């Protein structure tokens, strides 16, 4: 899929909005999952998602296919998350908001399991939490996570 994505980005670099829409459709879900697992606040997820794709559009003229596209895009998402979280903590003096929203279509047992997982994730430091989300929920390889978060592969493994 990566070659297709690179071709789409090269078309976006030339201003092709249909290629942008196609990339948006491919990555809206994985990025929403990433942000939702980090904050579980749908309004914030929507804002972050919009900002990632805005940054992608603005960066398109400078895009050079030097890495796997998903790594490039999740790097944008990671940087946005770090900056947004820092601003949020500075403006409120609090930790990142963590409303406990649950999808209504899950069975009671599934919801209870999900609550336990979310509670465990909430207790992790942000870097460890992000590694788990990128690996488990987004299916990225350790090397890709290493590039996204700019940390050694060994650190990704230990987290």
What does this structure look like?
Helix 2 crosses helix 6 and helix 4 (69-92) packs across helix 7 (142-149). The model is unreliable at 96-102 (pLDDT under 50). This protein is an all-alpha fold and 159 residues long. The protein has helices at residues 2-13, 17-39, 42-59, 69-92, 108-123, 126-137, 142-149, 153-158. It is 75% helix and 0% strand. The longest helix is centred in the middle third of the chain and has 24 residues, at 69-92.
Form type: globular
**Which residue ranges are poorly predicted, with pLDDT under 50 across at least 5 consecutive positions?**
96-102
Structural class: mainly alpha
| Rounded average pLDDT | 87
Rg result: 16 Å
Fraction of residues in H or I helices: over 70%
Which range does the strand content fall in? under 5%
Key attributes of the depicted protein:
single chain; 159 residues; mainly alpha; 8 helices; 75% helix; 0% strand; globular
What's the quick description here?
The protein has 159 residues and is mainly α. The chain has eight helices and no strands. Helix 1 packs across helix 2, helix 3 crosses helix 4 and helix 4 crosses helix 7.
Chain-wise SSE layout:
Elements lengths: L1 H12 L3 H23 L2 H18 L9 H24 L15 H16 L2 H12 L4 H8 L3 H6 L1
Helix pairs in contact: 1-2, 2-3, 2-6, 3-4, 4-7
């Amino acid at each position: 899929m990566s070659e297709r994505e690179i071709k789409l980005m090269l078309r976006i670099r030339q201003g092709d909005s249909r290629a942008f829409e196609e990339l948006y459709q491919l990555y809206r879900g994985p990025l929403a999952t990433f942000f939702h697992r980090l904050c579980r606040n749908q309004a914030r997820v929507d804002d972050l998602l919009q900002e990632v794709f805005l940054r992608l559009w603005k960066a398109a003229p400078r895009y050079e296919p030097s890495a796997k596209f998903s790594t490039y895009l999740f790097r944008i998402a990671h940087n946005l998350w770090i900056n947004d979280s820092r601003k949020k903590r500075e403006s409120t003096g609090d930790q990142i908001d963590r409303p406990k929203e649950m999808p209504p279509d899950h069975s009671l047992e599934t919801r209870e399991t999900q609550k336990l997982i979310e509670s465990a994730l909430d207790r992790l430091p942000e870097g460890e939490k992000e590694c788990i989300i990128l690996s488990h929920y987004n299916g990225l390889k350790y090397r890709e996570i290493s590039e996204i978060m700019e940390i050694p592969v060994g650190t990704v493994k230990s987290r």
